[in-house]
């Protein structure tokens, strides 16, 4: 049993690295193939569960590499592109990766601690908070806009939220592009491509990366960010339709996590906290809250307390190995990036992203990318924060929770 | 000056892009399929299908959960509280949906707990034919 668990855990870590590094690849995309493999090779249910859990956890850690180094984000790491890329261009790429690993491992410990103490209260919290979710998000949006301070920028931020919000309403509610892939062109356009285009236009180059491994952030700030990230991750885990990006945006504004380093720790913490809670939520609230936990539920049907402990062990082992591998890759990759012509690299990444988008989502995906890239670039030229583009998810979420979706969709006739 | 031109160009591209996406979404019709043709390959796609209501459950939060059957296949149809409120405004309550009635439904195919669902999103997505 132990050897089998170890083998499947390592295989999951390998698959997770692949899913994390390749842009556009997500554990949810791989789940049908993993389930199919399990059926063909008649894997034991526990072995298959181990494979899925270790893949999901590893992907979270490794995904920051592609979002920070080549500006190719997943929905959950989209907001890391900006602070991560900024640190890379300051010669602190490894520090950015190190911060996400610290955030992830710290949040794993903090989340397990929080869950063990507050396990019984989640069901109650879930019921109490649900009617108020849209007000919470509306509050965060108002804070986002007001944080721009100057009138011209406040108007610009409102315009970006409206444009990205409308883009979200149409793309997330129509079948122009398969809903499973729709966020790829949307977020690549809003966050990834503008970063690369601006880098090319400003003739940016990757400076020599700092050799020292120190962190330019205090331990107190790291601990604060980890705790905040874990709490936000758990909230994402038990509140339906609140995604990691929405939570990160709210934390960024409401919790004052605007500084690049503390934000990277918090974002990584939210990702890990959410994944851990989602996997354990099958036992805690009887509801799967992520693609991986849906698959686990399908495989194991009823989760006992001992199953949960077993999966927690797998999560901890996978997170540890994934953290080490992410640090290893995070140290090596910038050294290669230093040597290549950064403009050529950015151009190659743009072509690769557009080709992947076309392959996954067709011509409509390219149209969505064109539009979202224009909105993302507009933020740059208006001189406001690009995180306002999160309106693409925040506005549809507000409409859903305020029960306004049917009215809007009827009005728009989509 | 260049910055103003670039800002204007991006703004125009955003508006034109949004208009094109909207027009494309308007022109796109849901795929008409029989219930037994709905498979996991259609997850994320908009479909129109028809079946007989074989199960009905009203949730305390205001949702209505139906199961449709046709050609020997079954599929779940959750009508969430937001849409139920809109249906009530149009004079259609949970009581109008009875086991045995035929329902023509349009919505996104999705997967929940390993089961396929069609999720209607607006009033026009639901057409009910009472069986006398």
Please outline the major beta sheet of chain B.
Answer: 7 strands, mixed
N to C succession of SSEs of chain A: HHHHHHHHHHHHHHHHH
Number of discrete helical segments of chain A: 17
In the CATH classification, which architecture of chain B applies?
Beta Barrel
| Tertiary shape of chain A | globular
- Kindly state the percentage of residues in helix of chain B: 25-40%
Structural class of chain A: mainly alpha
Q: How many domain regions of chain B? A: 1
CATH C-level of chain B: Mainly Beta
Tell me the span between the first and last alpha carbons of chain B.
Answer: 71 Å
Overall pLDDT of chain A = 83
Report what the structure shows.
The complex is a heterodimer of chains A (414) and B (132). Chain A has one domain. Helix content of chain A is 77%, strand content 0%. Chain A contains 17 helices and no strands. Chain A has helices at 2-21, 27-40, 45-69, 81-89, 93-118, 122-129, 133-146, 151-173, 183-201, 219-238, 244-254, 260-284, 291-300, 305-339, 342-382, 391-401, 405-412. In chain B, 28% of the residues are buried. Chain B is elongated. In chain B, strands 1, 2, 3, 4, 5, 6 and 7 form a seven-stranded mixed β-sheet that branches. Chain B has 132 residues and is of the alpha+beta class. Classes of the chains: A mainly alpha (414), B alpha+beta (132).
């Amino acid at each position: 049993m132990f050897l089998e668990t170890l083998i499947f855990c390592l295989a999951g870590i390998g698959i997770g690295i692949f899913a994390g590094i390749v842009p556009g690849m997500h554990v949810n995309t791989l789940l049908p193939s993993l389930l199919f493999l399990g059926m063909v090779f008649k894997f034991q249910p526990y072995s298959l569960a181990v494979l899925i859990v270790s893949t999901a956890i590893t992907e979270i850690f490794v995904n920051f590499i592609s979002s920070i180094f080549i500006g190719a984000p997943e929905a959950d790491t989209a907001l890391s592109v900006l602070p991560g890329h900024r640190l890379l261009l300051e010669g602190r790429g490894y520090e950015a990766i190190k911060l996400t690993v610290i955030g992830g491992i710290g949040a794993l410990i903090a989340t397990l601690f929080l869950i063990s103490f507050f396990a019984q209260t989640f069901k109650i919290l879930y019921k109490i908070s649900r009617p108020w979710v849209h007000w919470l998000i509306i509050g965060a949006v108002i804070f986002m806009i007001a944080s721009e301070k100057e009138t011209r920028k406040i108007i610009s931020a409102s315009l970006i939220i409206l444009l990205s919000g409308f883009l979200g309403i149409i793309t997330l509610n129509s079948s122009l592009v398969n809903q499973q892939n729709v966020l790829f062109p949307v977020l690549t356009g809003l966050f990834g491509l503008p970063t690369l285009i601006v880098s090319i236009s400003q003739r940016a180059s990757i400076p020599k990366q700092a050799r020292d491994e120190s962190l330019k952030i205090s331990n107190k700030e790291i601990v604060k960010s980890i705790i905040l990230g874990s709490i936000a991750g758990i909230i994402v885990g038990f509140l339906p339709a609140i995604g990691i990006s929405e939570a990160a945006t709210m934390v960024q504004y409401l919790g004052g996590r605007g500084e690049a380093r503390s934000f990277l720790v918090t974002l990584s913490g939210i990702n890990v906290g959410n994944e851990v809670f989602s996997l354990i939520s099958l036992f805690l609230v009887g509801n799967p809250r992520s693609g991986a936990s849906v698959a686990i539920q399908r495989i194991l049907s009823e989760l006992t307390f001992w199953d949960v402990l077993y999966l927690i062990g797998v999560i901890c082992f996978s997170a540890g190995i994934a953290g080490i591998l992410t640090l290893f890759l995070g140290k090596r990759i910038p050294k290669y990036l230093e040597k290549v012509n950064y403009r050529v690299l950015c151009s190659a990444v743009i072509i690769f992203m557009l080709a992947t988008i076309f392959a996954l989502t067709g011509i409509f995906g390219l149209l969505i990318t064109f539009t979202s890239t224009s909105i993302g670039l507009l933020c740059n030229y208006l001189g406001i924060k690009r995180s306002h583009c999160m309106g693409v998810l925040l506005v549809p979420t507000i409409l859903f929770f305020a029960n306004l979706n049917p009215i809007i969709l009827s009005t728009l006739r989509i | 000056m260049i910055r103003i031109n670039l800002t204007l160009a991006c703004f125009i591209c955003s508006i034109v892009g949004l208009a094109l996406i909207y027009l494309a979404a308007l022109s796109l019709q849901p795929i008409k399929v029989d219930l037994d043709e709905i498979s996991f390959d259609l997850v994320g796609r908009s479909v129109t299908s028809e079946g007989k209501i074989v199960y009905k459950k009203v949730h305390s939060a205001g949702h209505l959960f139906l199961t449709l059957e046709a050609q020997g296949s079954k599929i779940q149809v959750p009508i969430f509280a937001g849409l139920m409120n809109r249906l009530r405004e149009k004079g259609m309550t949970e009581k109008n949906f009875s086991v045995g009635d035929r329902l023509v439904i349009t919505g996104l195919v999705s997967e929940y707990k390993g089961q396929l669902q069609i999720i209607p999103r607006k009033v026009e997505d639901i057409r009910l034919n009472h069986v006398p």
